[in-house]
Amino acid sequence: MSVESQPVTPTQHRIIIVAGHDDPLDCLVEYLRQQINQPSNLTHCTVIVPPVAPHSHIRNHLLTGIGSPALLGPEICSLQQWLARSAPLSVPVMPTRTSELMLAEALQQHPELVGDNNLWALTDSLLTFFEQLSAWHVTLPQDLDDFTDLLARGYHYLSAPAAPLNQEARIVHTLWQAFTKQQAGEGYTDEHTLHALRLHASLQRIPDGTQLILLCPLQLTPVEVTWARTLLDCGRLTIIVHGELPTTNTTPSHPDSPLAQLLDTLGTAHTHYQRTVPNHYYQFLNTTFAPHVYRDPAQAITPAAPSLLQRAQGFAADCPRSPLQDRITVYKGDNAEQEARAVDIQVRRWLQDGKHNIGIICEDRRLARRLRALLERAGITLQDRSGWALSTTRAAATLEAMLQTAEEDYAHLPLLDLLKSPYFVLEQSPGLSLATVFQLEQDIIRRENIARGLQRYRQHIQFRQRRAAQHTDQDAPLLKLLDLVESLCAPLTPFLTGRHPPARILSAMLCGLETSGMLQRLDNDPAGARLIEEIRLLQRSLIGRSLDMSWQEFRAWFGRALEKAHFIIGADPSPVQLLTLEQSPLARFDAVIITSTDLTHLPGKVPPTPFFNDAVRRELGLPTSAVVHSHRLHHFLTLLSQATRLLMTWHQDSNSDDALPSPWLELIQTFHDLAYKTSLLDHELRRLVLRHDSQICDRQAALPRPSLRPRPVPVANELPDDMTASMYQNLVNCPYRFFAAHILKLRAPDRVREIMERADFGSRIHQVLQQFHSGPVSAVTADRTQLLQRLNAISRAVFSSDIEDNPEHRNWLNHWLECTPHYVDWLLDCLADSAITKIESEISMIQTGDDSCGTLRGKIDRIDHTADGITIIDYKTGQLPSMPDIIAGENVQLPYYALLAGQPRCQTVYLGLLQRDKHGQPVISEQRLDIATTSTLALQHFDRLSRLRSALNSGAGMPAWGDEATCARCDMQGVCRKQSWHDHGVPLPMMSDSIMAGE
Q1: Quick check: is 298 in a domain?
Q2: Within 10 Å of residue 848's Cβ, how many Cβ atoms?
Q3: Do residue 83 and residue 229 come from a single domain?
Q4: 8 A C-beta contact, residue 571 and residue 382
Q5: Cβ-contact 513, 542 below 8 angstroms
Q6: Cα dihedral 941, 946, 950, 952 in deg (nearest 10)
Q7: What is the pTM of this model?
């Protein structure tokens, strides 16, 4: 050990600079050894560490370094903790939540200052700026003109300030004065002023003999500098800093600049601590991030300054073997999932290699969540020192579903999310269970297509009871369930309109939670309890506030509060820790992974503010964005210099060019490539990521065998007794689809359609025409104008409820109204030689015997009587089937209806109601089969139906055809597992085992 060839003693220089490649904790151990005045007694010493420093790690390092099994002292705490104990002051401090509300009140009192800006975004920006002014003890000029002149100097205006600058100055100055005046008037101070008062008071209250060690500070505010100088001068404080003192001038963005600025402000002599000789690895980092790389763009680089290439070549000449080999690797993934899997695999590899202390630096919370899931799947717990935004917890999601249910008139999506939440107390009412929720979802919401409305849900439950022709208690739990939801959301209903005190809204929210039983369940859950705690903190922050909010403003304010609040998940000790870059100082690991080393996260972006650029902030004496970046770079390089094994990961989506690597990572890779002509990419890790067997999965379950194209054989008594046109069409299109839908009775889940689809539109048109033709209409008595008016009136009435649900549905109505004149014209021509006899007619044909086709049923849209017989008309609002498909038996509907009608002289028509000609104009088109063709096809289909029934009764297989056209519109996709067929594309036998044999 050497400290400028001198030991570290308390009587020498009070500032010690620990070399960047050494551990400042080693220096702390050496210093404390000399402070022991009794065996293992350091109670007179206090080590002040950064707020996020790992206290347990520091204490363990001291025990090991001092070599004592037990140690009295030193106290290890942050500066804020030490001040709260050493200089307790009973000064009321305004909480941040209250400050935010006070500032919002001031903005509401000055609407001309808000303009079109978002109230809460403006409040956040102003509050952040005001807190920085307070932290750095910057006092704005009392006169607006003086403040405007100060800003003009920052913006380098040579003439009179422009109007936008005057407006910016007026907003900040007016609100700053109003904010500070109201804060003082209510008897509050802010936490930064209290911090300054405690610093001053602590100077008089430090017990004799106490020694303070300020460990690794990176930045001190002016009042902290004054406090530190006072203690340094009287020998009561020692400061240990970590890094290299720059030998040249650096810009604020250089990693050494925080240390240089700190020493410059303290203005006290210092000494150096160097325990080991810098190795090639540390020299590589220092040479890569050389000071002149960070000179101001406006400052020309001197000819003597070597370029990156020259430095790389010179370093390689001095160190022929790469010092990064087996120490730093890089992984680049094609997407976020690959990056998460790479981290998961690398952690498991290191644990297998015997590493017991692994750190993961992650600035991307979404990636952190996925990583936690992957590691827990592998049985590896994760200590997360950052926690989660409270808004991302399941408890907050349940509360969000509750608020959306109330504000969206009990819309089905948030309602179902709420009902299926583990926090929703179904046991509050007897007889309720998840089965009740499932019944409400399937039988009422989806089957009845009810998108929203508590009363509409109840009405359709009553309609369901009427259709059952008797009242039973089967639906009583559904009504109880809706009553329970109403008890939860009803207290919020009065606040959906108008402006109200937010405290009353929060009270109504808690009232609903308590009435429904959810409050107790939330309190019994860690995340839920944290959520309730935050709500109560918000309630306390509103005491004395006269702020009123609309529902939208309340939702914005409440949502931002949950975004800012954090929930830290408790976990048992784990060999793997998850932390951010700011939490990394003084943390030491066997191996480190730095994730998301892309431009977005490293260095990351300083949150934008609408007020003042860096030049103005420098003029005001506030830290600039360059200072923030230099601190992050200092943490980054400190982490690299202390790591024995390190992996840096990032990803770039293949379909996006937005993601770029971090300039820090890019600089390291470029320097290494120039020096050693080799890449840092970990190709072995990439190979493992792409291998399926590198993923953790359940190996106990047997793998499924390769599947064949299904060809089930139905049992005769399971065959349906009836056959409809749609069932017959399914049987022709794909026998397996018929088997799944009509023998297994499977069906795709109903979905609520808030936007009308073409199938819904076709149903409405059928309903319109049924009502329109319900009265007698003839060519003799019919008047075109009257017919058109009646048809349009019926159309508007049928579509009225749909338009009420969604105004966009009016487009469907208008589309139909364009066609109604053409339909009336076609109808009058048709009625000249025919008469409408049946509308929406349900017909069945029953046959018995082994060779019969069973019972055929169907619903025919319309039957007209003509001199030659009857005409069966089927309405089509979509594309008409082609004539070749009808003749070939691929489309069965018209011949099937003719078979049902049982008339010897019958012609059939597909009537296209919404067709367009080549000019895009609406027309009515026909696809007509004459009497002879209809009769021939009907007999052929009768014969095919008989043979199909006979084959099914005899145990014929029902294969899945697998043709693309049918599969594209099949609602049984996935059941047949077409993607896993290993006989896909092999021709199917069409004889003995096929129900289509003989065709």
Answers
A1: no
A2: 7
A3: yes
A4: yes
A5: no
A6: 40
A7: 0.75
Q: Are residues 27 and 149 in the same domain?
A: no
C-alpha angle 130-133-135 in degrees, rounded to nearest 5 = 110
Scanning the structure block, which residue is given the tokens 């895009």?
920
Domain end marker among 694, 728, 755: 694
In Å, how far are 375, 617, 665, 782 from 633, measured between CA atoms? 29, 21, 11, 86
566 lies in some domain: no
Do 208 and 133 share a structural domain?
Answer: no
- Domain boundary (142, 157, 188) is at 188
Tokens read off for 95: 């909480």
Cα angle at 638 between 636 and 642, to 5 degrees? Answer: 120
Numbers of helices and strands, H then E, in the chain:
37, 22
Sign of the CA dihedral running 411, 417, 420, 425: negative
Same domain, 743 and 813: yes
**431 contacts 480 by C-beta, under 8 angstroms:** yes
Tokens of 420: 């299926």
H-helix segments, 319-448: 336-352, 365-377, 394-407, 412-419, 434-439
Identify the residue whose tokens are 């088109």. 925
Q: Which of 645, 13, 550, 507 is nearest to 269 (CA)?
A: 13
Low-confidence ranges of the chain (pLDDT < 50): 1-11, 293-303, 778-780, 989-999
Structure tokens at 124: 């956040």
Structure tokens at 26: 């080693």
Q: Would you call the peptide bond into 603 cis, given omega within 30 degrees of 0 as the criterion? A: yes
Instruction: Show the tokens assigned to 80.
Output: 């804020």
Q: SS3 helix, strand, coil % of the chain, rounded to 5?
A: 50, 15, 35
* H, E, C per residue of 1-45: CECCCCCCCCCCCCEEEECCCCCHHHHHHHHHHCCCCECCECCCE
Structure tokens at 117: 């800006």
Phi-psi region of 902 (alpha: psi -120 to 50; beta: other; left: phi over 0): left
Burial class (CB in 10 A: 0-12, 13-18, 19+), 170: middle
CB 995 within 8 A of CB 957: yes
Q: Output the pLDDT for position 174.
A: 87
How buried is residue 510: exposed, middle or buried, by Cβ count under 10 Å (0-12/13-18/19+)? middle
Q: What is residue 568's predicted lDDT score, i.e. its pLDDT?
A: 84
If asked whether residues 174 and 201 sit together in one domain, one would say: no
Alpha-carbon distance of 918 to 915, in angstroms, equals 10
Is the same domain home to 944 and 908?
A: yes
The reply to whether 466 falls in a domain is yes
Quote the CA–CA distance of 367 and 58 in Å, as a whole number: 29
For residue 912, the domain's CATH number is 3.90.320.10
CA distance 242 to 256: 10
Terminal alpha carbon distance of the chain: 96
Give the tokens for residue 400.
């969000």
Q: Which residue type does 899 have? A: L
Residues 103, 125: Cα–Cα separation, whole Å? 11
Number of domains in the chain: 5
As a whole number of angstroms, the distance between CA 896 and CA 945 comes to: 10
Pair 569, 365: CB distance under 8 Å = no
104, 159: one domain: yes
- The CATH code of the domain that includes 591 is 3.40.50.300
Do 449 and 417 fall into the same domain?
yes
Domain-embedded: residue 849: yes
Helix 551-564 / helix 502-516 crossing angle, nearest 10 deg: 70
**Residue 223 is part of a domain; what is its CATH number?**
3.40.50.10930
Q: CA separation (Å) from 895 to 102, 246, 852?
A: 77, 93, 17
Sign of CA dihedral 933, 935, 936, 938: positive
* Domain membership of residue 464 as a residue range: 390-546
DSSP 444: I
For residues 503 and 507, give the distance between their C-alpha atoms in angstroms, rounded to a whole number.
6
Residue 383, SS3? strand
Phi, psi at 866, each rounded to 5°:
-125, 175
